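pinging the channel bc i need a second pair of eyes. not urgent but kinda urgent?? the chain im working w is below, pasted from the shared doc
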Amino acid sequence: MPIKNLRCNEQIRISPVRLIDERGVQAGVVETAEALRRARDAGLDLVEVSPNERPPVCKIMDYGKFKYSQSKQKQKHHEQKLKEIRLRPKTDPHDRAIKVDHARRFLEHGDRVQFTMLFKGRERFHQDMGKEVFDAILRDLGELARIERPAAMDGRRMTMLLVSSKTAPPKKPGKAASAQKPRKPAAEPGATPATAAGSPTAVASPKTHSPPVGASVAGGDAAPPVAAD
């Protein structure tokens, strides 16, 4: 809805009106006095939102809060425009500096800027002069400007299109891609499986069984039992 001064409360002279209550529910066609009474009971305003309808459409709302939210939306919305700045290959440096200042303000406002250099007569055979001027303009603008279309001839004109570098920042790699860890190489066949991190590698050793008491030892007789004292 465009921002404009709408009639509200006692400024609404037409009766009856089609009413929308504070909850956004259609309340039907009622007398203006009744709609005003409902708005006052709710502690809000009666606003004529569609004056060209018959009967006009009125809504119960906080008009001050409505105007504030509409003004904030208008400040956030900016339609990008194309601004053209014309110059010649032999434009005076002082005049060129003024044109660069204009371009700087346009770029800071979020607009696109097209520099157009006009060549006349034998100037067409000295296109290198135009490119040198455009290079100097880019140096003057610095990091504020980004080339959308580089300098190129179009008939007798050389054009270069610039945009603000703030409008389209370079894309950064996603966190998921940067945080992804490289995969560990697969274990070779026959290799010992890795143990848990931080724990020493376990070496399997064959189990040894001690012979029972009184059993014969290989190559000899059984040891005699020890007598108790």
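so Residues 173-179, 191-206, 213-223 have pLDDT under 50 and may be disordered. and The two ends are 113 Å apart (CA to CA). — does that match what u expected or am i reading it wrong
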